[in-house]
Amino acid sequence: MTPDMLLDLSQLREARERVERTIEPSALPMADEDAVRIRGAVRLAFDLLKDGAEFRLVGGVQATLSLSCGRCLEEFPLPVDLPFDLLYLPHSENVGDGEIEVEDDDLSTAYYRDEQIDLSQLVCEQFYLVLPMKPLCRESCRGLCPECGTNLNTGTCSCVHRWTDPRLDDLGSLIDQD
């Protein structure tokens, strides 16, 4: 964890401050993942609103991610410009209140410790929220040939695509007898 990725809340003197950071991809924990790569610098800008021990961060994060297509496996860029509005509360130990229902407001609430907010965690969380379940380079992606592996977006193959249900093989033998 680099020190510039930690926002020291004890140094804040005003009720409202503007924070802008340019973050190199190597400073983020998700930079080591194979599924998602960060292309170039990440721009993080937000207004920090202080209300006692509560801190509200309203701003956005901009970057370009590089994903692998779920059909053809080619890499493609995913431009990201995400707004966020998060409420940070001081972390307290769980006292075992039992089960509670998660409200909509709880989804935009985060916690900080030791008078510091980890900005790398904030950025990575925003990136994970924007990732598609099945990344596609384009909606009309044709994928790979299941026989030879040719990328059908850039070439053709001479494979014969014939699929039969193995559960019906015995019925097929009855047809061949006539």
Q: What's the layout of helices and strands?
A:
Blueprint: E1 6-8, E2 16-23, E3 36-51, E4 54-68, E5 75-90, E6 109-112, E7 116-118, H1 119-130, H2 169-177
Parallel strand pairs: 5-6
Antiparallel strand pairs: 1-7, 2-3, 3-4, 4-5
Largest sheet: 5 strands, mixed
Multimeric state? single chain
Could you say which structural class the secondary elements and strand pairing correspond to? mainly beta
- Helical fraction: 10-25%
Strand content of the residues, in percent?
A: 35-45%
What does this structure look like?
The protein is mostly beta strands and 178 residues long. 12% of the residues lie in helices and 37% in strands. The chain contains two helices and seven strands. The chain has helices at 119-130, 169-177, and strands at residues 6-8, 16-23, 36-51, 54-68, 75-90, 109-112, 116-118. The strands form two sheets. A five-stranded mixed beta sheet has the order 2-3-4-5-6. A two-stranded antiparallel ribbon has the order 1-7. A hairpin with a 6-residue loop joins β4 (54-68) and β5 (75-90). The longest helix is centred in the C-terminal third of the chain and has 12 residues, at 119-130. The mean pLDDT is 82.
